[in-house]
Every structure is written in C-alpha cells, then in structure tokens.
Design brief:
Blueprint (H helix, E strand, L loop, with lengths): L2 E9 L40 H13 L7 E2 L2 E4 L9 E4 L10 E8 L2 E12 L3 E5 L7 E5 L6 E7 L6 H18 L10 E8 L6 E4 L4 H20 L7 E6 L4 E4 L12 E2 L6 E2 L2 H9 L5 H12 L3 H9 L1 H10 L5 H12 L6 H6 L4 H12 L5 H14 L3 H7 L8 H14 L1 H9 L4 H11 L6 H12 L1
Parallel strand pairs: 11-12
Antiparallel strand pairs: 1-9, 1-10, 2-15, 3-4, 3-14, 5-6, 6-9, 7-8, 10-11, 12-13
Bound molecules: zinc ion.
C-alpha cells in the first residue's frame, strides 16, 4: 500500500509584522533588502521580540484543525549554515523534552478519510535566493532578506494519504480553511508550499523537497510512486533518502546531503522565554473563530434552500461567501447565490481579477432587483456584470447607457417576429404542424434582440401569429 505524508508551510500574511521584529510581514511590496532590520538580519546584540498575534493566529489554525493546544510553548534554534539564513539558525519549534509546539494530534476529514495532523509549529521563513544566468558556469545567486523572519506555520501530517488525488483534495480543503480563518492568503505566490514523503509496501520512506506548486507536488508524487514500484518489481531495495524535484526534467533526483535532526543541533532559544497561552486566551480565540466552511454550507442549504453544490462553492470561497452574505436579503438569497456561481465566476476566477474588480455586493442586489422587476433580462445581466467588474458603474447607469433593458413593447417585438418569419419560412410551417418546435422561433427572436426580448411575451405573440 502506498503511504504519503505532507509537510505544509503557510505564511501568516495577514499579520502586520514579522515574527520577531517590526518589519512588515508582507515583504512582497518592497525592493530587495528593503524590509530588514538588525533583528531579522541577526546582527550581534539584537534580540528577538515575539509577535503575540502570530502565536494567536497559529493557535487558531491548530484549533480549526481539531488539534490539542498546549498551555505553554517553547521555541528552539535549528542550526544550519545557508546563505538565505542570516543568523545561521532558524527559530522554530520542536516537540521534545515535554515542550510542545502550538498544536498537535489534530485531523482533517477528506471525503470520509481521516487525515491525522501530527504537529503544527510556528517558525520564521528564511530569505529568498534568486538564481540568474543561463548555464551553470554563468550562474549567479542573489539573496533577498525581505522574507527573512516572516511568520510561518508548518503543518505536518501522518502518512495517511493513499494516493496523490487525496493529497490534492486535502490541500484544497486546507487552503480554503486558512483563507476562511482570515490568517493567510494561500493564493499569494509562495505563501503556501508543500513537501511530501512517499513509501510503498515494504519500502523505506523517501522525502521529496524543492516543490514549487501543488500541481508539481502531484506530479512529483506520481513520479516517485512509479519509480519505487519499478525498483521493487526488480527486487532492488528502496533506500531511505531525500530527493529533489527537478522542475525542468519532471523527475525526482537524489540529493547528496541528507541532514538528520541531530545535525541541526537543536537547542532551546533562550532569548525567548516559554510562552504561556492561558485557558482564557484559548477560550476567547475559539469563541471568536469565524464560522467554519462546513457549517456555512449547512446554513446556506437549510436557511435559504440553496442547492448543496451551489452552497459548497459559495462557502468554500471566502471571496464569494463575503459577497453573498453582504448582498442577499432572505427573499433573494437563492437568486444572488445563482448569479454568483453561474454568471460572475468566470469574470473573477483569479486573484488578480478579484483585486482589479470594481464589483461590490450592492451591485449584485441591484442586479437581482432589476431582473425581478423585469427591467433587465437574465441574459443581459451577464453583460452587465462583466461591465460592472470592469468599470464599477451602477446598475442604473448601465441600464441607461448600454441599452440592456428588456424589450417588452409588443410593436417592437412584432416587428422582429415578422423579420424572423420571413427568414425562417420552413420553421414557420413546421411550427404550424407541430407546436413543440415553436421554441426555435422564440430562440431566433432572442438572438436578434441579443436576449433582451421578454421571452413570455415573445412566445405569446408568435403563437397568436401562427394562429
Ligand atoms: Zn526586521
């Protein structure tokens, strides 16, 4: 049986400052090496000061993943020398000597399968290495310390996954959960990263590192399972090792160095005393936790009678559920939900489009009102939505500017019907014979009016003309 485990790193991008200094947690807006200070650069004499909010965010994540959260946590130094680490050690957590990280022993339900969360720890992100140059010989390495010290949560699972598909579903659930908690933005480049480990029946565990995206993780897992199976079929032993994902060749390659825990010379970070998280703090964190995705979904279905698939899309995406909650009244909730999940989705399906979008929840309620009082047809509402996302104009402005209003004037519709009858003589004969084919003619009228003709009136008029 295949066993897969994961190590996920997620930046707490919603925090104002880094884990141990007052530099910004959101380093992305800075020129290289412009979001640094003596503390995150590890200059002699500087002392770390723990960001209390980061401890609270990490504890909330632990709680949302049904973990046990301890009363007292400790930080450790993980010593290693690498250019992205200015202090030559990373401040992280470890579950040893009775000291606990922010959470442990949790679980996530993945389509009926329980995936156990072994540990959640709070640590600092290292800096970033940027490689430039064409070949190995001309390659230069640049280092940017803006990211050094960014609060990072590491989530470690047990090897409970049986295939890469379960991994993908889990990562989607986890990233929706983190977004919903309001502590992280998993969609930001590099804000959520995952490494995996794989073993097959009777074989040793192999870790895969250096994976840039969830998409690549899935490919790397598939490759690794096939590689191990092929070794095992030929009777070759699978050695316990760390392998790197080679993005260009799409294979995993054995890495020369393999550090063991003991190589890191972990010891207690004495510059940060034990941190107490009182029962009171934990109770208040739990009480103030945003409603979970599953309970949101249940509420949408039960209260507004929204279809479960639609409720699922709305609830799992914080952007959509916020729009929905602010737009709907009890009577039009179902219409708003459908408008978001059928018409709007295509226009705001990426982070960039969402940031540029000028749409607010007011637009959605105004659109539904216009559709319901028949000043706008359902078909035109899609054109209107696209324009709103682009320009942010009000529904009222659009109705007068864009000629989107519904055509319900009988004379105007009759004129168009006459045109259609002239062009579609055979269809007219067919409709006289067989009334069921009349919808073809209605469709033609809708086409000519770009969906603006009142469909009920059009059908009535066509029927009366057919006699
Ligand atoms: Zn700093």
């Amino acid at each position: 049986m295949t066993k897969i485990g994961l190590e996920i790193h997620c930046q707490l991008t919603k925090l104002d400052s880094k884990l141990f200094c007052s530099c910004k947690a959101n380093y992305r807006e800075f020129e290289p090496n412009h979001n640094i200070c003596p503390i995150c650069m590890g200059l002699p004499g500087s002392l770390p000061r723990l960001n209390q909010k980061a401890v609270e965010s990490a504890t909330s994540i632990a709680m949302a993943l049904s973990c046990e959260t301890p009363e007292k946590i400790a930080f450790f130094r993980k010593n290693y020398f690498y250019p992205d680490l200015p202090k030559n050690f990373q401040i992280t957590q470890l579950n040893v000597y009775g000291d606990m990280s922010v959470g442990g022993e949790g679980h996530v339900d993945v389509k009926g399968k329980k995936i156990k969360i072994r540990r959640i720890q709070l640590e600092e992100d290292p800096g970033r290495l940027i490689y430039e140059g064409e070949s190995e010989r001309t390659k230069i390495t640049l280092v940017d310390y803006n990211r050094a010290g960014t609060p990072l949560v590491e989530i470690v699972t047990d090897p409970d996954f049986e295939n890469p598909r379960q991994v993908r579903i889990f990562l989607n659930i986890l990233s929706d959960l983190l977004e919903n908690l309001g502590v992280a933005e998993p969609g930001l480049e590099g804000a959520m990263r995952a490494d995996g480990n794989v073993s097959i029946e009777g074989g040793n565990k192999v870790e895969i590192k250096n994976i840039n995206s969830f998409h690549d993780l899935e490919k790397a897992l598939h490759f690794e399972i096939t590689r191990q199976q092929s070794l095992s079929e030929r009777g070759i032993e699978i050695s316990q090792e760390t392998r790197h994902w080679d993005d260009k060749r799409k294979i995993t390659v054995s890495s020369r160095s393999k550090e063991e825990d003991q190589d890191y010379r972990y010891f207690l970070e004495n510059d940060i005393p034990w941190v107490k998280i009182s029962q009171e703090t934990r109770d208040s964190l739990k009480k103030n936790m945003p409603e979970s995705i599953s309970s949101k979904k249940e509420r949408f279905v039960a209260k507004f009678n929204i279809a479960p698939q639609v409720a699922d899309i709305l609830a799992s995406d914080k952007y959509y559920s916020d729009l929905f909650e602010n737009a709907h009244s009890d009577s039009d909730a179902k219409d708003i939900a459908n408008l978001i999940t059928t018409d709007l989705m295509g226009f705001v399906d990426t982070k960039e489009k969402r940031e540029e979008s000028k749409l607010t929840s007011h637009h959605l309620s105004d659109l539904i009102t216009a559709i319901n009082d028949k000043t706008l047809t359902r078909t035109s509402s899609k054109t209107a939505l696209q324009e709103i996302v682009k320009s942010g104009k009000s529904v009222k402005e659009l109705l007068s500017e864009m000629d989107l209003g519904q055509v319900s004037d009988s004379t105007e519709i009759e004129g168009i019907i006459m045109q259609v009858f002239e062009e579609e003589t055979q269809a007219v004969l067919d409709a006289k014979e067989n009334p069921e084919t009349v919808n073809y003619l209605v469709g033609k009228v809708m086409q000519k009016t770009k969906g603006k003709a009142d469909p009920t009136k059009t059908l009535e008029l066509i029927k009366s003309k057919l006699g």
